[in-house]
Specification:
The complex is a heterodimer of chains A (about 325) and B (about 180).
Chain A lengths: L2 H8 L26 H11 L11 H17 L5 E11 L8 H14 L5 E12 L1 H4 L6 H10 L7 E6 L7 E3 L14 E4 L15 H10 L63 H14 L14 H10 L3
Parallel strand pairs in A: 1-2, 1-3, 3-5
Antiparallel strand pairs in A: 4-5
Chain B lengths: L1 H9 L12 H10 L9 H15 L6 H20 L7 H6 L4 E6 L7 H18 L2 E2 L3 H22 L12 E5 H4 L5
Antiparallel strand pairs in B: 1-3
Helix pairs in contact in B: 1-4, 2-4, 2-7, 3-4, 3-7, 6-7
The chains are: A alpha/beta (about 325), B mainly alpha (about 180).
Chain lengths: ~325, ~180
């Protein structure tokens, strides 16, 4: 398959018509026996008012999420989102010198893949930095913080992408939209430089790591989040999945009560890049909802905003605690 | 008082969000077994244990002081490992079957509130990290989780002395560094 065919395939629209699994999000709705230790820890922290650990979204946040999605649907809000992008290429001398062409291919891919969610990316600039300490940053360590504090720009209204070679062979990571309030300086995505289209990092060198991480940045979870238990990834049309897909195991099922095959080709799984080709309808809706809740400023960027301030206020009012 | 002193001493530099130090397992390995000629001086181990116990005596920390406590523990672990003799043999150690890391922590009952809180926070932060990272293989994911588990093992080793001959398995299920292709960094 050549590059053009691949991009055409990737443009594959949001798939739909799978199953519905979302909806239960209140602590009291989840039977105690089926709750994991993690759920109970989370509840304990919430009930004690200690939100210090910032776990993946609290039960309150889960409620908020579902409410937001329903609110957007009821208001019929589907808006074009224009996301300005800063790219920071971190190099160690000549190592990590990503070509402009590869960056452009990555931007094209992002714009193609996120089109069904009405998200458009506009590359503002590419800055290159020679810094050996930042070249191998680890997830959430001191070096990452220093790098982002020094380089990150306008995190409320733009996407910062850091291209480098992370410690521990990680392919990439992202902040979620709900992190923005507490730690705006950490906002953005970190992506392995050899994962961009046209690089050598097979089987993860077709640019899907950036797609996957930007998906997180816009509020999506892994399709296997939460395993076989509710609320899973909080998206109703991705089947439950006990664990990540590796390679391209088309037709895989992994949960006893899940008859639909796993979302192996979903961008938010761990399959090989060549296997990934879709977001679902509800993932697209969730992106709109998450941006409306946590990154509403993006609606104001680029001069194409069609959502009125009153509408945004209405959405916010709907899920106030 | 202990907590206040820590805030004054380390507050400005507190930067650790990830409770992640795979070398925490090396502390236990070096302290309990003679591995490739690498040893930790006894007085350095004692100093480390005193430091860790002081941190454990802090009141149950809040958000910012969790980061401070983790930062402090990590510094203590680095200082201790810096005293190890035979560091040049680290590569041999990493390639050997003696080098092990914890892939799953035991769920031991803990009586100390501070330690309980730290462990809970560490576990939640690991789950949070896993929800936002893309890994290239199961092996890479396991190695990443081991970083959190080893940080805790190094901390627990500081709290309670271990007998010679005891091993990392006291804290959980282990796998060899070789198997997980752990590298020097």
């Amino acid at each position: 398959m050549n590059r053009r065919d691949f991009v055409a395939l990737s443009a594959g629209v949001c798939a739909c018509g799978l199953i519905h699994k979302c909806g239960i999000a209140n602590a009291q709705d989840i039977p105690a026996a089926s709750r994991s230790d993690e759920d109970q820890d989370r509840e304990e922290i919430i009930s004690n008012g200690r939100r210090c650990a910032t776990p993946p979204p609290s039960l309150y946040e889960l409620r908020e999420t579902e409410s937001a999605r329903q609110a957007f649907r009821s208001l019929g809000l589907q808006q074009d989102l224009n996301v300005p992008v800063h790219i920071h290429v971190i190099q160690k001398g000549e190592e990590g010198k990503v070509a402009d062409d590869q960056i452009n291919q990555q931007m094209t891919l992002l714009n193609t893949v996120f089109l069904p969610a009405l998200v458009h990316f506009n590359l503002l600039d590419v800055k290159r930095h020679d810094n050996a300490d930042w070249y191998h940053v680890g997830h959430s360590g001191a070096a990452e913080r220093k790098m982002k504090e020094a380089l990150g720009k306008d995190t409320l209204t733009t996407l910062n992408i850091y291209l480098l070679k992370p410690r521990n062979r990680l392919l990439g990571w992202a902040t979620f939209p709900w992190d923005l309030g507490a730690r705006p300086e950490m906002d953005g995505v970190v992506v392995l430089n050899s994962s961009l289209p046209g690089t050598e990092g097979r089987p993860f060198n077709l640019g899907m790591t950036a797609v996957h991480e930007v998906g997180h940045w816009l509020g999506l979870y892994h399709t296997f989040q939460g395993g076989c238990a509710e609320p899973g990834d909080e998206v109703s049309d991705t089947p439950y999945e006990a664990s990540e897909s590796v390679g391209c195991p088309v037709g895989r099922t992994s949960c006893p009560n899940e008859t639909n095959p796993s979302a192996v080709s979903n961008y938010m799984n761990y399959s090989d890049d060549s296997c990934m080709s879709e977001f679902t309808d509800d993932q697209c809706a969730r992106i709109q909802a998450m941006v409306g809740v946590y990154r509403a400023e993006l609606f104001d960027v680029g001069g194409t905003r069609s959502l009125s301030g009153n509408d945004l206020e209405e959405v916010r009012r709907l899920f106030k605690p | 008082m202990g907590a206040a002193v820590l805030v004054i001493s380390f507050g400005a530099n507190a930067s650790v969000w990830a409770f992640d130090n795979i070398r925490g397992c090396d502390i236990v390995n070096f302290a309990t077994t003679m591995v490739h000629g690498i040893t930790l001086p006894l007085d350095a181990v004692k100093t480390y244990q005193e430091r860790v116990r002081n941190i454990a005596r802090m009141p149950v920390p809040g958000d910012q002081s969790f980061a401070i406590a983790a930062d402090e523990i990590m510094r203590a672990q680095e200082v201790l490992l810096g005293t190890a003799s035979g560091q040049t043999r680290l590569t041999d150690y990493l390639r050997s079957d003696v080098c092990e890391v914890i892939v799953e922590l035991n769920n031991d009952p803990l009586d100390d509130e501070s330690t309980k809180a730290l462990l809970t926070t560490s576990r939640l932060r690991l789950q949070d990290a896993l929800s936002r990272i893309r890994f290239g293989s199961e092996q890479d994911k396991t190695l990443f989780k081991a970083g959190y588990n080893c940080f805790i093992a190094g901390y627990l080793f500081g709290l309670k002395p271990m007998r010679q001959g005891e091993s990392l398995t006291k804290f959980g299920q282990t796998r060899t560094c070789k198997e997980l292709q752990r590298s020097v960094d």
